[in-house]
# Entry
Amino acid sequence: MAGYSGFSMSNNAVDAYDNGEKPLSKWSKAEILQEIRIYAKENNINIDMEKLNKVSLPVLRESFLYKTAYHHTSKFYNSTDFYAIDFDTVNEMVDLESVQKLLELTEEEKMLKKQEKKEDSPEMWECAYLVWGGTRAHPKATEQTAIGEVRGNWFYLPEGGKKSIKANGFRFIRQIKEEPTVQAQPIKEQTKQPVNKVTKRVKPRGPKL
# Structure
């Protein structure tokens, strides 16, 4: 049915939601597992849901969702892809190896994220690299050293520019680690202790005889 439902989405998009379809970002892990659980129960399919619960959301989306169509959303008529559960894939989950493969994909995804995080974290290094001079007929390489940041496959020089860590002649010398700063403890002011004054007691004199 053509037309728009208010200003939020088209009537076709509303119908798609009613049919269990929605944009990829709207599919949560809990919703995907719930749809699989209901379908498996209704069709007497034995699936190890405990193991399937350990599969990451990106792997679940990649494995159990398929694109059905696109619909217009928002008042700007944006085209948005809609997705639904691929029940053919659910039927294959009776094979324990299929579930195990999804767990392996989840582990690979975790390792990839760790590697990306490591590459995004700059480290300070002292490195050596070659600077070429001379003439075209008689090139000459001179090794220079500098301390700079290593991010991914690049060594960033302090004065600007960068060198590939995979270039010939490039080598790491030592990593520069920040020394832990020791916070100085404030010196306690010593207060002068008051001196106890000794009061001289005068012995009273008796009556003069």
Summary: The two ends are 135 Å apart (CA to CA). Residues 4-119 form one domain. The chain has a mean pLDDT of 82. The CA atoms of residues 92 and 98 lie 7 Å apart.
